[in-house]
Design goal:
Two copies of one chain form a homodimer. The first copy, chain A, has one domain: Nucleoside Triphosphate Pyrophosphohydrolase, CATH 3.90.79.10. Helices cover 25% and strands 40% of the residues of chain A. In chain A, strands 4, 7, 8, 9 and 10 form a five-stranded mixed beta sheet that branches. Chain A has four helices and eleven strands; from the N terminus they run αβββββββαββββαα. The first copy, chain A, has 198 residues and is α+β, with helices and mostly antiparallel strands.
Chain lengths: 198, 198
């Protein structure tokens, strides 16, 4: 990992750290829970609960971007529920109602980083948390990415993007900067596709 | 995949399918949501929500069992929120309050399957869903497993276990029977450890 790149990353992480938690008794607005009973083919009935995110099932697209210079682009954002309070990840985001996973991938990559891809390669799909969600996620590699526009973030969304070598992104996994399963699995599964291109 | 093993698996899947959903307005008992504000180092305050599972952060241990005969052991259980309503997975379960991840791994493997391991090998750890949870999961390989006791399941828990060759478990990923990210990532990352033992 180049020293100046690691310094740049640490600057973003520091900027987005949580310095204070203000506890509230406010009702949730984004997350929502349903509880139902399910009759099984073995004759038993079981109660189970389901988490909804923003009234959707919470499915997401995850994107490994590769630029025309064979760099990748990571995002740094507040993850207030984690010990670190800030994580480095692959760009990703929720699939909107009636949106195709590949369209969500292109939209989220562009919104979070301003990079626009030439072509997407599907890597894999999987349940995120099958015990309490229907969320089914999709991983892609975005080839031929170019920085074409500014970020387009939601209110209360603070994201820094970070361009580095693909091998440096793999190093950031080993160094413990990238530690969510969506990013780790996508990086792991994409190795075979990326190696042949570099 | 041996034909008779696939037939055995299909029998378990059929037995645990959801045949009817009985909708309720009951309050959730297992899942719980908190909403707070977080002051960031950049001067901004953001609202964020956090999902709790059974009053814990929802961290889990995931286990790839290898028997003394170099087979593996999978579990089949109702996953009522998925399209399939039943999934095939690696044994896994929530880490209890004050429990070590490796102890949870041994306990859950034994409860779900009745197999007892000789030795556990840590594979990796990762955030499950960092946007709305603190859940941090741990993956292990359990070497030298032997069927020593009966299953010990919770009320409303219906799990079938299924012994097959390690290579057949990898095939079940390709065939679309295993499709949750915890099982897929653990199987993927464990290849290097398992290959040298088989």
């Amino acid at each position: 990992m180049r020293k100046e790149k690691l310094e740049e990353l640490k600057k973003y992480i520091n900027e987005l750290k949580t310095i204070e938690v203000i506890k509230t008794n406010e009702n949730p607005k984004f997350l929502n829970i349903e509880r139902n009973y399910y009759k099984l083919n073995n004759g038993k009935s079981v109660p189970r609960e389901k988490l909804l995110k923003n009234k959707t099932d919470g499915s997401a697209s995850i994107i490994l971007p590769l630029t025309v210079d064979n760099n990748t682009v990571l995002v740094v954002q507040p993850r207030v529920n984690t010990k670190e309070t800030v994580l480095v990840e692959l760009p990703a985001g929720y699939i909107e109602h009636d949106e195709k996973p590949i369209s969500a991938a292109i939209r989220e990559l562009t919104e979070e980083t301003g990079y626009v891809p030439e072509k997407l390669q599907f890597i894999d799909s999987y349940y995120q948390d099958q015990g309490c969600m229907s969320a089914y996620n999709y991983s892609y590699i975005a080839f031929g990415c170019r920085k074409k526009q500014a970020q387009n973030l939601d209110i209360n969304e603070y994201i820094r993007y970070f361009e580095c070598k693909y091998e440096e992104a793999l190093e950031l996994v080993e160094l413990g900067y990238i530690k969510d399963i969506n990013s780790k699995y996508t990086l792991e599964k994409s190795r075979q596709y990326v190696k042949s291109k570099l």
